[in-house]
Write a structure and sequence with these properties.
The protein is α/β, with parallel strands linked by helices and 365 residues long. It folds into two domains: 191 residues, Rossmann fold (3-Layer(aba) Sandwich), CATH 3.40.50; 144 residues, Up-down Bundle (Ferritin), CATH 1.20.1260.10. Helix content is 50%, strand content 11%. Strand 10 and strand 11 form a beta hairpin. The radius of gyration is 25 Å and the shape is elongated.
């Protein structure tokens, strides 16, 4: 391993379907900091393409030939790539040798799948993408739902939104600095991380603003819809549920507008939203049963959950992503509440199961 006075040598793993930003941001930041970044894949002559089609790169070498002791750090980006990396025991053993030797291993999003495969998470504090939380816990990890978790020489983060903090932690661990760039304390949630994300190839300010406005438009439409559901609810229990959901949506809009204000921007409501308003009004022109209303409300809520999930996973701004994360949790809870009421009401009017015939069965001969 190199000394502090020598150029830091960092391996970043690559496979098909890598999450583009999770490769690009650490790669670009380390290059700007003067590190010697070596891309390691499973094949020398293969061009690796990112999940979002922004990355297209050939590996400098393979994990088969690489020697862990030659590096100061190993980075495992996420996306679909780790699920392929974990099937290559040369890659798994390379990472395990690095971790066992005290070399920094930094893993983000689905990256811990490689750590799971090599039994590297037993009694280790770590984080990762929410979808693999149970897998990590089953592998013995103490799962921590935070943007950055450092346990000895292992650094882990959860998603693209954590990348500026994740990458800064790697740079600081390696005692690296980026010319003309101030690296904040990784514990400072209000450090304006989006600027570093943009500088290193992540979401631009305009992309962040556009995503926030998309979320505002969705919540405004949904608020309008649920206000109609309140007005047309056939009973008090349904009305109270819809009123609570309206309150949640108002809170979401306030959070999003406040974030826009921090970024020096203002809400921009899409003109096409008027079409959604007209559609909601048309729905109630005919008499609707409580089942009709609940089913439509459930569909609106499900759309909101899926849309916010997608927005959350495309940005590299921790503060905005944190708002999206809070929203997704509330939306999912409200979805479950509507679904529970829908099932209860549906059960009240569901036909009885057909009774078995008293006639003897006939078997074909």
């Amino acid at each position: 391993m190199t000394t502090q006075t020598e150029t830091k040598r960092v391996a970043i793993l690559i496979e098909q379907g890598v999450e583009d930003a999770e490769f690009q941001i650490p790669y670009n930041a380390l290059k700007k900091a003067g590190a010697n970044v070596v891309v390691l894949g499973s094949r020398i002559n293969e061009e690796y393409k990112g999940k979002q089609n922004k990355v297209a790169v050939k590996a400098d070498a393979t994990t088969t030939e690489a020697i862990a002791a030659d590096f100061d750090a190993v980075i495992i980006p996420g996306g679909q790539a780790p699920d392929k990396m974990r099937t290559n025991m040369n890659t798994v053993n390379f990472v395990k040798e690095a971790l066992d030797a005290g070399i920094l291993v930094a893993s983000v999003c689905h990256g811990p799948q490689v750590l799971i495969e090599g039994d590297m998470l037993e009694n280790v504090r770590a984080t990762g993408f929410r979808a693999i939380r149970k897998d990590m816990q089953n592998a013995g990890a103490v799962f921590v739902d935070e943007p950055l978790v450092i346990d000895d020489n292992l650094i882990t983060s959860r998603r693209p939104g954590d990348l500026p903090i994740f990458t800064t932690a790697i740079l600081q661990y390696l005692n690296l600095s980026v010319p003309d760039t101030s690296l904040p304390n990784v514990a400072d949630a209000d450090a304006g991380w989006w600027k570093l994300g943009e500088e290193w190839g992540g979401s631009s300010k305009s992309e962040i603003v556009q995503a926030i406005n998309t979320a505002i438009a969705g919540e405004r439409y949904s608020l309008e819809a649920f206000q109609h559901y309140v007005d047309n609810a056939p009973d008090e229990a349904m009305r109270e549920l819809f009123q609570e959901i309206c309150a949640h949506k108002q809170q979401h809009i306030q959070l999003l507008e406040s974030r826009l204000n921090v970024l020096g921007d203002k809400p921009s409501l899409a003109a096409s939203i008027s079409n959604f308003y007209a559609d909601v009004k048309a729905f109630f022109q005919n008499n609707r049963s409580n089942i009709d209303i609940l089913r439509r409300a459930l569909g609106d809520m499900q759309t909101g959950v899926v849309d916010i999930y997608a927005l959350r996973n495309k940005l590299t701004d921790p503060a905005t992503v944190d708002i999206f994360d809070q929203m997704e949790i509330v939306l999912a809870r409200d979805e479950a509440r509507i679904a529970e009421m829908y099932k209860d009401r549906l059960g009240d009017r569901a036909p009885q199961s057909p009774q078995p015939s008293s006639s003897p069965s006939v078997t074909a001969g």
